[in-house]
Amino acid sequence: MTDVVNPVVNIIDVVINDVLRSAALKEAFALIVAAVPFLGWPVIGLATAFVINWLGGKVFDAIEKFASFKIIDMQVIEENANYQETVAQLKAAQATNDPAQIEAAAIVFKKTLGNLIHFDGS
Fold this sequence. Notes:
The protein is mainly alpha-helical. The chain has one domain (7-116). The chain has helices spanning 7-35, 42-96, 99-116.
């Protein structure tokens, strides 16, 4: 099974990981060295940059993970609301005892349930 890659997600990922991360870490290093100048000295500056990059990487990874989980959570909440609405429509169709209405509502229900429960990892 091949993975389908969304080009918009890749562009956003590149922008966040490369541009914003490097700019933020450079700015953090500049602010720390401005506040405590000896941390910018040749040998100490390398260690300071390493620590800032390491900690900053951990912070950015945590933010990225949080954002991913939040997006997934919002999608599931929306799909669950759609599912609940579809269940109500199916119950209403069953109350009418009209086979055509029940069949149409069942088709919509199956589609909505499929959107809520993904077995393909999407």
